[in-house]
């Protein structure tokens, strides 16, 4: 498995964590927390821009570099578009001014195509910092890793492995795998995007003495 340049993780349903916390009987506290989290989310959305029509050869690093003079970039998340050979991305800045300035770059040619920059309607899902690459080897591994979601429950790990090997080849770069976003596997179109995290081997369980 270590030679396969892709990563599959289960898709978490929206609101799962919030629904679980409601069972402890604190409706007032839940409403307050909900209002606070919604306000925080709205603030993050105002600091985020949506970028479309991105050349498939453009990396997240290339894209972030385009916006470096607009303000400090907090996160950059590129995704495959099942309806186009071009990709789209979300870029989050530290403040709203950075996001507003970034809108002026709409129409800038990056690669072979002019990108479109619009205010985002959604925030970028955060990544647990403990999962981020910690070394050059892990960063190199991360470049060969993809993040695959919307996987049919009937599709097994072996099915997914065979699918990407047959389409992309065992030793191919993750770039080819990104073009599989939107392909029907089982009964659902899979979503493929660059991974922010490397695939780490599972730690062996400690034996009880």
From TrEMBL:
Q: Show the GO MF annotations.
A: RNA binding
Q: Which PROSITE patterns match?
A: RRM (PS50102)
In its keyword annotation, does this UniProt entry include Signal?
Answer: no
Q: Where is this region: Disordered?
A: 9-39
Q: Name the domain of life.
A: Eukaryota
* Gene3D superfamilies the record matches: 3.30.70.330
List the PANTHER family.
Answer: POLYADENYLATE-BINDING PROTEIN-INTERACTING PROTEIN 13 (PTHR32343:SF32), SERINE/ARGININE-RICH SPLICING FACTOR (PTHR32343)
User: What name is this protein filed under?
Assistant: RRM domain-containing protein
User: What is the organism field in this record?
Assistant: Setaria italica (Foxtail millet)
């Amino acid at each position: 498995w270590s030679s396969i340049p892709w990563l599959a993780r289960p898709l978490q349903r929206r609101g799962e964590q919030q629904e679980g916390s409601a069972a402890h009987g604190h409706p007032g506290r839940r409403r307050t927390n909900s209002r606070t989290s919604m306000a925080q989310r709205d603030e993050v959305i105002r600091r985020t821009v949506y970028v479309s029509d991105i050349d498939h050869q453009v990396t997240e690093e290339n894209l972030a570099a385009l916006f470096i003079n607009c303000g400090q970039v907090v996160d950059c998340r590129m995704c495959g578009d099942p309806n186009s050979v071009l990709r789209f991305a979300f870029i989050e800045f530290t403040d709203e001014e950075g996001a507003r300035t970034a809108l002026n770059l709409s129409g800038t040619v990056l690669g072979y195509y002019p990108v479109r920059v619009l205010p985002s309607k959604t925030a970028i899902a955060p990544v647990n910092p403990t999962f981020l690459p910690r070394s050059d080897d892990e960063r190199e591994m991360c470049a060969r890793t993809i993040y695959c979601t919307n996987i049919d429950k009937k599709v097994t790990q072996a099915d997914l492995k065979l699918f990407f090997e047959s389409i992309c080849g065992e030793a191919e770069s993750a770039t080819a795998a990104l073009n599989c976003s939107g392909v029907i596997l089982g009964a659902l179109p899979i979503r493929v995007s660059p991974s922010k995290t490397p695939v780490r081997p599972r730690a062996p369980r400690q034996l009880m003495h």
